[in-house]
């Protein structure tokens, strides 16, 4: 049976460098499962592979969508499975790489059949958030679906608004729509995780943020500033700089916040992957050990 090898791990752990070597060993292109690198307008702030790396190995789902597109994990599941089916005609093994847990789950397990939200409802909830703040939306979500309220990151406005959208659209608790079983795939899946001790990971994250500023992150954010209310840009590395442009914080504070929020994001990724027992973990330097597993 054909096999999909999934290389995953927290942001900054070293997936990109190792993925090039692994793709060359497997003689496979790289299928990206990163929910931010898919947007072509975002480059430095999403740590997209450099031109040399992109030239070495064929990549898919890198800069393939616009921030103006309505794109999410459900669409990625359809697009990625279609691509995988096509590529398996020429390859025995394929490599998928990323740290976006929901995108990885979309391919490996399938996404829940969540109803689409009407634009008017989404706009209404967004307007309520602006006028009333997040606490009002949290209170309503807890009333409608206490289970999902206790599962999601209620400090993240996007998560709260999305859960509330689903409850109001379906007329049912969001948690009742979430499936507890994985869809069957017609290929084997092998998950390889990369991990570092917390201090080493955090040091790498801090250094990478400094390097992003050296590469021109400030100018990139300036070009995107007028689109700051688009969902794709409400993300770490951009929202903090937009606050600096708005005069709310200093540049030094924005830099520190990006580092802190990226570390927090990495911690959430680690918690997400810890739920699964089908991942074999390695240090990023253990390429030969990974090859032995393969």
What does this structure look like?
There is one protein chain. It is built from 14 helices and 6 strands. The model has no long low-confidence stretch (mean pLDDT 93). It is globular. With 294 residues, the chain is α/β, with parallel strands linked by helices. 31% of the residues are buried. Helix 5 (119-132) crosses helix 8, helix 6 (134-144) packs across helix 8 (157-170) and helix 10 packs across helix 13 (251-273). Strands 3-2-4-1-5-6 form a 6-stranded parallel beta sheet, with helices on both faces. The chain folds into 2 domains: 3-111 and 184-293, Rossmann fold; 119-177, Histone, subunit A, CATH 1.10.20.
Judging by the overall fold, what is the CATH architecture of the largest domain?
Answer: 3-Layer(aba) Sandwich
The CATH topology of the largest domain is Rossmann fold
Count of runs of 4 or more consecutive helical residues: 14
Radius of gyration: 20 Å
In whole angstroms, the N-to-C terminal distance is 14 Å
The pLDDT mean sits at 93
Number of strands: 6
Structural class by SSE content: alpha/beta
CATH superfamily of the largest domain: P-loop containing nucleotide triphosphate hydrolases
